[in-house]
Fold these 4 entries.
Entry 1:
Amino acid sequence: MRKFALSAAALLAGTALSGGALAASGTVPPAPQAPTTWAYAAKTGVGASYEAYVDGAYKDGGPTGTVSKVWYSIADGVLTETMYGLIHQAQIKQLRFAVMTPTGLAVEGADTTSKTEFLHVDAAGRPLSPAYKITTTDKQGRFEIEKRIFTDPDRQSLFLRVTVRALKGGATPYLLLEPHMANTGGNDAGATNVDRLSANDGGVFLTLKPSSPFKRTSVGWMGSSDGLTDLKDGKMDHAYATTGEARGAIMLTGQLATVATGEQTFDFAIGFGPDAAASEKAADGSLKTGYAEVLARFNGEGKRVGWEDYLASLTELPRLREAATDGGKLVQASALALKVQEDRTYAGALIASLSNPWGDTVSAENPSTGYKAVWPRDFYQCAMALAALGDKQTPLASFHYLPRVQVGPKTPKYRGGAAGWFLQKSEVDGTPEWVGVQLDQTAMPIMLGWKLWKLGWLPEGDVKAAYRSMLKPAADFLVDGGQVDIDWNHETIVPPFTQQERWEEQPGHSPSTTAAIIAGLTVAADIADQAGDPVSAARYRKAADDYSAKLEGRLFTTAGALGDGRYYLRINRTEDASRPSTIEVRNGQGEPTADKVMDAGFLELVRYGVRRADDPHVLATLPELDDQGREDVSRVRYDFRLEGQTYPGWRRYGTDGYGEDVANGGNYGAGGQMHAGQRGRVWPIFTGERGHYELAAAGLNGAPDAAAIARIRATYVAGMEAFANDGLMLSEQVWDGVGHPTSHAEALGEGTNSATPLAWSHAEYVKLLRSVSDGVVWDSYAPVKARYGAK
């Protein structure tokens, strides 16, 4: 820590204020600006208000009043990306505190440790809302900061209660707010005064109001005149009032009163709106309502409608808590996280993660959704998990949302090619982002519709209507394919050969994709029969039979390069598994032949009912997948010793490069370039997927016995629980111990800077609990199992 040649009094005071606030004045002078990036992706918390549907949509005036459209995230002990409007529209990069002490300056994140806790819990310590208490502690023991964070469910605003504790000498805190208005890091304008900090860009305005005036404020350009740069000499020299006509990457700074001893609490509200007056009104309204009442409304305490009411509506949650091994903490946190990650304009639009993976080295000069977007595959996992919890409304809203992302004449950039398939990735309003064809993402909406129908939640009339308008075109595409013509994509798709498999990287035949196609067509035939279309039903079953009959020939090698040579391939572009194709270069990795790469995708054949758990091809592949004697480049399974127990984990596949660098722990794709040292780590999803397989195997001859259920809970349920961070968030990837630790994951099993929370990880955990509770795999399909898995 740099020591300043100034007196303790001067360090704490910054500048002579004579005990009063000093108004900012003047315009910040032009200066070079530092490049902007997004924030850390390793979130320990995400939140938003609970909003009740009105007739399956989000509308003001329902049981929860005004619809709040504000989301927030927490990482490294600070408030990070905060969205307003649509769920991907970031307006804040981060809000943190710098603290001047008698021995120098400390900044939250770099100079502190942090702890994340839920603010509102039940008697068993299970979270009742996504309101958080975040405690950061100076590494030198000089101060502690406690932040309580939640949104105002009746306004477009965020509430923060901040308590600063002086532990060793006085402490002068400085609030540092980095806006990213209109989902970019540049082009912001800002203004400050002792009673507010404000920013705007692209017709979106932000106002931060303190409960009592700041002592001093300033706005500055990042990297030159921002508050943190200003404080490096031990005092706050500048008090600029505005950026004037200029725009760029800015920081807003507010100096708070010095805490000489003990502690002092400050309240803040951040309002958003289409103009300055609206954003200020939102912030003022929250402060006037006050901390206790805003939090009570957020929680849904007493007669107020909020998160407690949502959790109480989940009819299956009590028995899922019983299936857990942690007393139900993670399943309750998962229920909250899954519902939080739904847009509040487009009901049912479930995103992949409220984060930008490895965001702290990803440029924010241009708008980016990161993972805050709709992938029909992740979407399906989330909708199925919410259904498993007993949420009868959100999965229905999600099903009715799906036409927005199905390709057809109304799809932007569509030029008349083959239709009926679902966009690879899109913004929640349906704007296409990526337009590759992934056939599992076309099958899964059919599977979701069938499940909701059989649960009795989707009325027969709605099933028939959806069949004609959405499900039949999707099923027809799974049979016929055709030449697509949208944006850059002009490929001819010949199912079950997919342009991209479930990891969006390779063309070819894939066990996991083929499993979804067969399941989708089989249940589509069931729906077609119900809709009075027996001709199509027969066609779908015939195509599914053909894909099933050819599956092993295309994907099961008997002369592979690994082990005894008998196993399912991850991907293959030929029609003959004995003549495997090469794998295309992705993520900076080479191009081995397909028989040199293992993955667990074949287990989806068992999950959906396409193959039995004791199918000889499945049994032959398991030991090859689990071989931990292989060199790390091709090894998939890693066992972890966590909390005194051993739990299994798996990477996506051997040679995976979607992760941090093994040599230096650097972020994936740093500098916009792929690097040969990148390594995809273990994904918690696969611990859940294997648990589902083991349950299917235990139930081959009837209901699994108690001993089998106990083993699955102790190994796979508890394993997923052990991967959660202190905010009960499950990441996309955890560190496997190979190479240099990452900047965010230094211990085995700790989440990396990949997408966190990954909605799919939470969904897989929830579905595993439902499967264990039922004794049957939750997203298996009876018609599929009867047709293909009974032998």
Entry 2:
Amino acid sequence: MPDRLRVLDLTDELAFNGARLLVGLGADVVRVERPAAAALSRAETLHWHAGKRVVGVPESAEVLDGLVEQADVVIESGPLEELAGVRAGSGAVSSRWPRAVHVVVTPFGTSGPRSAWRADDLVAAAAGGMGWLGGQPGGQPKPPPREQATQLAGAHAAIAALLGVIARDRTGRGQLIDVSVQEAVAATLETAAISWIHAGRYPSRNGGVYEHVAHRVFRAADGHVAGGYSGSDRMWTDLLAWMAESGEAADLTEEKWSDPVFRWRGREHVDEIVARFVAKRSAASVAEEGRARALPWAEVATAARLPANSQLVARGFFARILGEGLPADGVTDVGFPFPAVEPPRPVRLTEPLPAPVEAPWRTAHPRGRRAATGTGRPLAGVRVLDLTWVLAGPYATKTLAEHGADIIKIESRHRQDPTRFAPSMRLRPDAGFDDSGYFINFNRGKRGVALNLRTEPGREVLRRLVAECDVVIENFSPGVLAKWGLSYDQMAELNPGVILVSMAGVGQSGPWRDTVTFADTLAAMSGLTSETADPGEGPQGLTFGLGDMVAANSAVLAVLDMIAAGRAGHVDLSQLEAMAASMGPAVLEAELGDSRTEAESRDPRAVVRPNRHPRMVPHGVYPTSGDDRWLALAVRGDEEWRRLAEHTGAPELAALASAGLEERRGREDEIDDALAVWCSRHDGASLAAELQGLGIAAAVVATGRDLVEADEHLAARGFYPVLDHPIAGPVRHEGIVIRMSDTPGALTAPAPLLGEHTDAVLKELLGMDEEELARLRDAGVLE
């Protein structure tokens, strides 16, 4: 990032992560204090704001305008009515600072019938469909731990900032960029909504058992491990051999279990035998032996133990935070999702330091505005060679396609992407591999080329394509590309300007370099799975591929950082590091002794109900009328509590209307029980609207069906646009999260059929004629 982007940080917790990610890329970030902002813990302050300089609350709008004028990017977040830089008029909003790249993150977006609604992480996760996926059957839903909804929104804000910079370098204009936290969540559910679109059903919380892959958390002799036996046939046969060696395979050695369909139908029986096998062994030994056998198994790590992870340590992932009152060498925090090419990933940061409002920036000059060179979407003219499969890589290239990149997706019948070929991932019972619902959603807007990379002619065609592309994204195992003569150095000889992003599970280097990973094992290694446990229970894990999509956002950020800087290079992105970076201040809390809740600090043995918050009471999920229907509710401050308590009409709540936070915390169980009774008498959607009218954050805990069919706000914002697929017909897709006012993204084409564009792309980019294509086809190269 040459000239170091100047970023003005006007965020609240909705987008803290956006400004932090830009610090990780070397941006010069100045944070403006917000009036009446909730006090953060020391760990939270250090995690979210280390590496920044801070100015006090501006004395006037003119002072703030002066700061904006000096910045390249402004990231602002909060309820729409509280944003300093947004002007409403004639039903639309605009920026007070039209020359700036102005990224605005609000709970529900700047337009639509719910644009004035409020939300914290819990409420946004509920409204976006993520809250529905966690928890035990029959119990209250709960979102993933560590504020993943707002962290996702922040990641999209950082992506939006770089898209805005790239667009400004093309057009010479700034713009307002709208990011809705609800939509950032709704686009990150894996199958939760698209199962409804394609099959008329949606997954429900089940205590942590994946619905479409045979993976889950198992109890070990001294802890827990995550793993399973989905994927290639080898995942099953090698696990079976491992169990058989010690005589613990029971009847699974019978021929019938080699049939994947039969095995899937008998999954409960298989899991029971695998669970017995794992329970006799330590978690560390299961993980170590799994790595040795190239099987996807991992120990469930805790935040306190994460800094001892030898893979993360070897790759220099962690950051040391220096500050007043801390040890001389600082304290350990999780680092950033990937090592940038230049400047290197920060490994030492100082606590946020005060700066004079007259001269807050470290850099001497703002980044120069380049002459306008074009129009259209920001990535128009950028060609990306997509060598990825399953979810993390395809999700990244999907996002790049939305903003104008030409994605050339390489596939083959000889390396079958399970999202296209596996029956369990086609979603519709009658779907074939060319109209798999999962594949359709995450591969729209790409051109498909069939290329058998097991053949030398196929690899030669691939090398020729590398020479014609600006970006290559791959998630092969480390070393595969080098065997094909396509290491980064070899690519650079073919194409000196190429950007290569590698997305291996744990990275291209380190002692675990060859580890086989799935989304659940990455979540386990990162520490996130350990925090999914209910009080007194074991961890449940996540039942969707959150880690894949977190890594995908990181890959997009890496690509945009390189494009904005005009730099070539190799980004070695570890999906584990991307996931570990989303642990928020957990590692710092463990080192500093900060507690997530007051109840825990008073009594470590206290049973703390799910979904509670250290600074908000009440804060939870409550049953409403109807079968398994729920409302998420978050009350900020004494005044909101008074309004809620009086509005309920419940005597036990009205009697506490004047209670402050500490008193409410002491009676939190009582308050929650009374709210559960009151909410259960009301329709959830009506009650959410009613409470939002009182200025209280609330939303229905949405299912996949709710999002697609019943959410009037998402419908008004056109979040599920329809593309006409040649086999599946008109199909709704999850929409674009980053809404750019001047250079908007677009969904331009459905996902390709297998090899649909092979001839066209090879003719266009490589100048092949019919004779050469026929020769390659006859040799089995184009299949």
Entry 3:
Amino acid sequence: MKRLKYRALIESMTVEEKASLMSGANFWNTKAIDRVKIPSIMLTDGPHGLRKQGGKADHLGLNKSLPATCFPTAATLANSWDRQLIYEVGQTIGKEAASEKVSVLLGPGLNIKRNPLCGRNFEYFSEDPYLTGELASEMVKGIQVNGISACPKHFAVNSQEHMRMTIDEVVDERSLRELYLEGFRRVVEKGQPKTIMTSYNKVNGTFANENNDLLQDILYGEWDFNGVVVTDWGGNNDRVAGLKAGNQLEMPSTNGITDQEIVQAIKNNELDEEVLDDAVDRLLGLVFTTQLHDQDTPRIDYEEHHKKAIEAAKRSIVLLKNDDKILPLKHGNKVAIIGDFASNPRYQGAGSSLINPAKLSNACDVLGQSGLSIVGYAKGFKRMGGKNDRLLKEAVTLAQKADTILLFLGLDEGSEAEGVDRVNLSLRDNQLELLRSLTEVNSNIVVILAGGGAIEMPFIKNVKAIVHTYLSGQGSAEALKSVLLGEYNPSGKLSETFPIKYSDVSSAPYYPGKEATAEHIEGIFIGYRYFDTVNKPVLFPFGYGLSYTTFAYTDLTVNQHQVSFTITNTGAVAGEEVAQLYIQKQDSSIFRAKRELKGFEKVSLEPGESKRVTMILEERDFSYYNPTIHDWAVEPGAYDIQIGSSIQSILLQERVMLTGDSVSCEHTKDQFPHYFSGHVHEVTAAEYKGLLGYEPPSPYWDPKQDLGLNDTIAQAKYKNALGKTIYHIVLFFNKFFEAVNKPLLANNVYFVLNMPFRQIDRFTGGKISRKQILKVLKWINR
């Protein structure tokens, strides 16, 4: 019998009471059992700031939350490559959560950026699992120092928003381990989170929250996770199967519907009561160690936290181009500020991460008070798209009066959000038209971009400078002012690759899949692992970012355990450099990326100053996952240890020899020619089948099959008149809200299209009953 920490308490409870703890009391709280003195605790959103709703609760941000400090999103913070900074951001967010008696903060998000169109990429750190795992671990540590729990999410392979509640992510074992699970492994082992949230999707045919391979074998078994697994909100499929796999807490409340399923399964001998007892024991451990009393809640200085938000934004802004050293701005230059984002900032994402900022300024006001010679502001374009000749003309007229134009462009709130993927990598046509018109009257244009990720830049040769703020939180305007004026030397480096055009992306032909499945045909070749391996030109490479100073790298010493080198600031101003360590295997007998990130350090240097940097290497840094033996292995031979300022700027290199392991991988060049070359756009069906080890399931829904509880409203378009009507009504409201410039509402309606019928009774707390849903399905299936 398994040793339970709270055995005596558990034995004093009825089966019904124990089962009741396995789902929420409401949208954000666990259930209390007063009879045995078990309190309720609160879980709430918080990837880049506390989102505790003050009124009626909802998951997608329809109702306003309490004021909190809005920090840069994970995609932004990742560009800092700064472990200590991200720890401090986590610590600050966790402190605000503790002040509101929130026991579990639902974040950080650390899914891998398989494709730049993913609508939720702004919440995720990187395309690289090493960088993701290192940074997310620091955020977890920072949050949990406050005595509460972080909740890394979404475990696992949540690579898209398209059909996210039903899609089957079909991915081979090696790619799963090396890319999609590795960041989570680092977080579990280094950050030791007390909770983890499962994803909505299936992984290789089984829903993530009831996937024994992911939960029992890997999370609990290999990684020795000792915390609680919680579903994403509405992410439960089969409650008993989930409990058996190791998913303790289902959220939100289902008004006891799924609790009864657990009780009935025990009565029918379909579930061992010891499984329930173990789940209750884990949950009680979370409840009793994160319960917050009045004396535990800290006081918050929001002004001090705003300063921290500014600092985080400053260190995360990336300078992408700076021709003729147009930046920092010269004193006395006449400056025109153009673009809607200057006065109405885009500083955060949308959906469950929508923060109500405690304080917020805009670039127009901040720059206007900076001492710059501002000749005026022009809106320039309609934010949500559409032609407006008056706005365009006003901007062009203003541009003629200025020496330098600060042009604020970016992605609007409807372009990227939870629940919907991006349509393309382009800015809106009216923004591009404005830029073209401005170049005809003024060549000194500094483009300032806002948005959660990569965009195409057909204009890059026509502007002098490009500054990418990403989504920098409530301190974005002050941070940008510091960078533009040279008060702070930009130090951000891209944590993802910017392609020249979307079709260059390795997963572009396969993303986001069809209807039923998302096939990861590109395998391990995502992001720089693809571009670098096949020498595909990019707009900006992984790890790239400019500075107002220069750095020199010298004196590399290497062995298989430790790497040391010296960095010197050779310029005239203080700055910070992100040194990156990559490992490249020579003459590999397996297919693999040309090189992979395995270390980094951010170093601050005064002019002329030098510092010695040391990085430690572990065996895992040289390993690949061998699907033949279902374990990690080190290939024997030569490995080049490379130090650079980006993946395309390797400045130092030394070789080490490893004896490695005797085991070999069965994948041969004859069998997998396109994986060995990296040209994954050309992978054949036979190669992909061989990589998976089985015939992939059909990517399409079967329109002849009756709809069931696991099917979606979107599938009703294939059924009778009632089904088609329901589908088109929902679609109508989606298009209507888009037309009236309500992007958040439009995206939330689109979310409903992808919701399985099984979630309707659970999301409505039984107001729409399972019996009523089954009746509607019966009518649709006639």
Entry 4:
Amino acid sequence: MSHNHRVILTRSIFLAGVAFAALASAAAPASAQQASNTDPEATTVEDIVVTARRREESLQDVPIAVSAFTEATIENRQLEDLSDIARYTPGVQLQQAFGRDGDRPVIRGASNILISDGKVGVFLDGIPWFGDFTTLDLDIAQRVEVIRGPQSAVFGRGTLSGAINVVTRRPGDDWSGRVSYTAGTDNRLSVSGVMSGPLMDGVGVMLGMTQNDVDGQYQNQIGLREDLGSQSSKGLYGGLFFNPHPNFDASIRYFRSEDRDSHFAVALQNSTFNNCFQSTRSYYCGEIPTPTRFALNTDRFLMPGLKREAERFIADVNWNIAGSGYVLSYLGGMNDVYEASGYDQSYDERDFFLIGAGCPFVPIANRLCGRSPFNDTSSSNRETQTHELRLSSPGGGFLTWNIGVYSANDELTPSPEFLEATEVGLDTLGAVNEVQTRAIFGGIDLAFSDTLTLALELRYQEDEVTSTNQPYTASTYFAPAYLATLRSSNPNAVVGTTLTRTTQFDNTLPRATLTWEPSSDLTLYAQYAQGNSPGGFNDPAAPVTTFEEETLTNYEIGAKTRLFGFDYLNASLFWNTYEDQVLTNTFQALTVVQSYRANIGESELRGLELEGAYSLTDNLSARFTYSYLDAEITEGVDGDQAVLLNGAACKTGTAINLDRPGCRSAGSIVGKRPPLVSEHLASAGIRWDGDALESGWTPFAAADVSYRGEFFEQVHNNITIPSSTRLDVQLGVQNDNLRLAFWGRNITDDDTPQGVLRYVDFPAALTPSGDRPRAFAVTAAPGASYGITLSARF
């Protein structure tokens, strides 16, 4: 920790202590409606209600693998975002290899290399959250539900391996609120507040705000010489809630968020470190080391880092028709997300040029020889709408049912805001990608007895995917004065080509669940389910221009119990067949190295998940999670694997040709482990809540540790990211109104790399395969941090 950071932290602790003393002396007793926060989970597990099947059910009775994190749990375990939630959920991994841009969640081994959407769906009160989700502020959450296994029959598109549903707060019968202040190392400063209550009879309101800032822990040695990994976020949210009649309720809510991050901390391990396949393409094998020096050309592009602005509206209506028990429900959402990002795609101080010194002599119009295409800034707008209408029958009888319809439109439009000229000419404008989804769904529950139930769910879904190129004339976006400065200037030049591609994916997605509850303390279930992730299009220049739909078939048995003295003990065994799995590869386009998606084949995923909690004494409680995953690719051929083994013998010119003798067998990846998938994941926590003092204060202390086993970064199983162990601690005092906590995150300063990006080392000489050798961009993980949090409830 630097001297300045120590001074700032000392001042913050002093100011927080003064504020805490003032609040403690002035605080009034909590109202009768305000629950005490002295219980580490704020409520017993029997009281936690989840909506994992789109209806309210007890967490311990619902026959599905779901982990729930209440508001108190989030506070007591220092959970800041969904990446923290993942660390304490069995079977879930979340990698942030590009800062807060391009989340890569993995549930039960369904690898996700490039994109956020498609395999793990995130929902806000049951309404899809489109785009990256690690900036989703948990301060708005009343509960977070992580649902494992295919959820396509219930939640629809983008839930092939699981879903995360964030349930937001709602106002009560009386006015209440909460304010929080956090200060810590790295100039961390967070302030939040929320208040809610009745405006008038039948109308409630909620208003809230958040502001979070923290400096990066790594210093850029060149460029702007800024902190790398700095993050700044602010959010506003509000809602109106209507309950004019016992048979009718509705709400409309608005969320606005703004994020501004510096360039993430990444460093290129160039090809001089490669230690294997030297006679073919040149690669690196073994554990990848953690970078210690960062040198990024952040002064060479228009806007370094990430800028994101989002507005979201969600609405729900529930009508118990004439008090009959038949409920007609509507869920609707609108998302408008603007995102701009500028990254040094050389990942080190070298300034890559494709044409270089020959630029003036190459017949390309509108080019700027002194600017590299690897220093790139781009932006886009994403607009989405979703609508769902559902009719549900009364519960409690032999037969209950629901039926509904769903529609969605999701359009991502690259913006011309940061178009510029480089050595290879004016930037192209990316394609507009649109997905239109239509679905009809339903389910029935058959209660054969008080203890035995069969639930059958089915969803028929159509996804129409359209990709439309955006060619433009140079003078449309560039001023004549700018074009006049470029070599071979041509204001009438057309950049890009006209191309529209459309495809449709239809699928029928079932789920069947048999539940047996032999006692109030034991629930046993068996489940069969299918999930899908629709395919789409790559860049027209990619070796593979389309990728097909993925499907996952899940067989699962599970048990939930409160026997043997456990507060809860849950276990699940599953076997998944994952067909047409989509992973990514890279290709060299005209301007830069790009990724493309391709179906690699089939994998089998078999695993065990455990989670439980136990009260050791009246004051001491413990909790744990553990998951084991046996993941293996059972069918698949990869062209790059063939080149690694056989070199130029598996190429025709510059293109990989698997039809050449011996190349298909050389490219086999059967028996390899899917990337980003650890065999073992675990976490444990212990919490002590002391007896209340005469002053009314209760001391507490907690420690939580999470373990992530080693995993392979790519399908070749050459590069390994080592295992990681992280320890978080808390110590503080609280009463019914106030809470003061001193905390430390990752106090062992675990520095395991966050992620690895496969790359092409352009300055290096060609390898025997006729390619340039591989290099690897390694992202650093956050180190240790410390601070205090003061919160007050009223």
